[in-house]
Write a structure and sequence with these properties.
With about 550 residues, the protein is of the alpha+beta class. It has helices spanning about 5-15, 20-30, 35-45, 60-70, 80-90, 90-95, 120-130, 140-150, 155-165, 175-185, 190-200, 205-220, 240-245, 285-295, 315-325, 330-335, 360-370, 380-395, 470-480, 540-550; strands spanning about 235, 250-255, 260-265, 270-275, 300-305, 335-350, 350, 375-380, 400-405, 415-420, 425-435, 445-455, 460-465, 485-490, 495, 500-505, 510, 520, 525-530.
């Protein structure tokens, strides 16, 4: 396909604002792309390489401006180009302002006739060679090759070459557009295209297979070890959301680390970041752990966590010191130790598991690894979920994840099947008006505390109880603090003189007949004693009413 024809079609697409019309125009482009379909499917999104490849052109704006300036002539400098981009706001429109084609001597095309029209295939080939240039003098070679391309461009071609080079296509074509255009151009089910994209993460490949082999060819595409796919994502949610939506909830630790996708082919290990960048070299101990632990090919999802000498998790910033390290890896390894914690299995020993329920995938993960597998607890009990969260936080982790036990693994999708539990965005200062003695090893401590809001002078109305977020040491301290203030005792239940104020986090406030305030806290969590406050300064029922109404 002539690159000029691609540029003409791109102009039409850019001039269109209606989504359905854009899909139709991309469909028509795909229908005439011939042997260049895979490249066109990437170029139209501003991509040179498949989404799963970590290869980059390594061309910044300055080098691109220099190439444009050289092709434009002796009276144009890179500073001139930069100034025009600042004024116009788009490098493609600036490139289209110049009259290319008159410069000699610096073309990187060897014996190629520079007057001949560019093809899409030539542009791709030159950009791939440009990306492969490394080592001493590589930037000069990149500049020469990019100059050669611009020198053969007419204004429209220059507009889209500049945009593709800097990944700034800006014509309104995203991944969904390419998916739908592939479906329409080659009359294949959208579900088949979407699934093929999930397992390959290669829009050019999927479009080509759809055209050549139809639905059966798409169905034959599978995960490939060494080819990363997009990570399944979570959205913010609450325990209430999870229990009401699914009934039973799969709960696991939310690690404060960096997401990794582990690929093991039975011999070697590759590690990819959430953005599908190859991070194998900076994490040699993770590679060693996987090689020592796995006995069959697999693709795993997990988190790499920085840990101290005792194995306790360190803050997220520490893992970045390792993740971004390209040099002196051994020295960085001595400074910051990391561990892999796996929580999902996408492929095991030749079998793709994306469509298997989460609970089954996790069970398969347990058979592959005998250590560092995230514990998955399935429960419909909100109090048990609160306890799991308290344990995770006490262990130094970020919190918990809530997942549908029956959910498939959907690469790249941020759906409602995985929820990050919302942090406590509000807190209340509440008066302790009662308590209950604990059980078992906590029998000597007051372990559940009745909370009340201030309803008037010396008037308090109950709003809930809190028992989570409190360590054994804190329980002992709270018992010493509150036991002298016990007014009355009935079995395990005690009435306490309203004199101590707790700061309490919560997930939400609901109306409830259970407590005298008419409200109840969902998943309250003890945060500490407000030693600076007395009951007269505690939160009022009116504030609770405002919070419940979303004010």
């Amino acid at each position: 396909m002539e690159f000029a024809a691609f540029a003409e079609r791109a102009d039409e697409i850019e001039a269109t604002s209606a989504d359905l019309e854009i899909v139709s125009l991309v469909r028509d482009l795909f229908s005439v792309a011939d042997d260049d379909l895979d490249t066109v499917a990437r170029f139209v999104q501003g991509r040179v390489f498949p989404a799963h490849e970590s290869t980059t052109l390594d061309i910044g704006p300055n080098l691109c401006y220099e190439a444009i300036a050289r092709a434009a002539g002796h009276n144009v400098s890179a500073d001139d180009v930069e100034s025009r981009v600042a004024a116009v706001g788009d490098v493609g429109d600036v490139a289209a302002e110049y009259d290319f084609g008159g410069q000699q001597g610096l073309s990187a095309f060897g014996g190629t006739d520079d007057s001949a029209g560019l093809t899409v295939g030539e542009v791709e080939s030159e950009l791939q060679d440009l990306a492969a240039a490394t080592g001493s003098g590589s930037q000069d070679r990149k500049l020469d090759r990019l100059f050669g391309l611009f020198n053969r461009c007419d204004p429209d071609e220059a507009r889209y070459l500049a945009r593709i080079v800097l990944s700034e296509m800006r014509i309104g074509v995203g991944e969904g557009t390419v998916r739908d255009a592939t479906t329409e151009a080659f009359d294949v089910p959208v579900e088949a295209v979407e699934r093929a994209l999930q397992v390959t993460n290669d829009y050019g490949l999927v479009a080509t297979v759809a055209r050549e082999d139809g639905p059966s060819g798409l169905d034959d595409l599978h995960l490939e070890i060494g080819r990363p796919v997009q990570a399944m994502l979570a959205q913010a949610g609450t325990v209430t959301d999870a229990v009401e939506s699914w009934g039973s909830v799969a709960v696991e630790t939310k690690y404060d680390g960096a997401r990794v996708q582990v690929h093991y082919d039975g011999d070697s290990v590759s590690l990819f970041s959430r953005n599908m960048e190859d991070v194998t070299d900076p994490l040699p101990e993770v590679v060693d752990f996987v090689e020592d632990s796995l006995t069959a090919p697999a693709i795993l999802d997990g988190e790499v966590v920085a840990v101290d000498d005792d194995g306790d998790p360190l803050p997220f910033q520490e893992i970045l010191r390792r993740f971004r390290r390209k040099h002196d890896v051994a020295k960085a390894q001595e400074e910051v130790e990391v561990e892999l914690w796996a929580f999902d299995c996408l492929h095991a020993d030749g079998e793709d598991l994306l469509d298997a329920p989460l609970a089954d995938r996790h069970a398969r993960l347990d058979t592959l690894l005998d250590s560092r597998v995230s514990t998955l607890a399935v429960t419909d009990d909100p109090d048990e979920i609160a306890d799991i969260e308290a344990d995770a936080l006490d262990a130094g982790h970020e919190g918990i994840m809530l997942k549908d036990p029956d959910s498939p693994y959907s690469p790249g999708r941020r759906g409602k099947e995985w929820l990050k539990r919302k942090p406590d965005v509000e807190t209340l200062d509440l008066v302790v008006t009662g308590a209950e003695w604990g059980e078992g090893r906590r029998a000597e401590f007051l372990g559940t505390f009745e909370l009340s809001v201030r309803a008037g002078p010396d008037e308090f109305e109950t709003i809930g109880k809190v028992a989570t977020g409190i360590t054994d040491e804190e329980l002992a301290e709270l018992t010493d603090l509150l036991e002298p203030k016990v007014r009355a005792e009935d079995g395990k239940t005690v009435e306490i003189d309203p004199s101590v104020v707790f700061e309490v986090g919560y997930e939400e406030i609901q109306t409830s007949p259970t407590y005298s305030s008419g409200y109840a806290l969902r998943f309250p969590r003890y945060l500490g004693v407000r030693e600076d406050k007395n009951p007269e300064n505690a939160d009022t029922l009116k504030r609770v009413e405002r919070l419940a109404d979303g004010e």
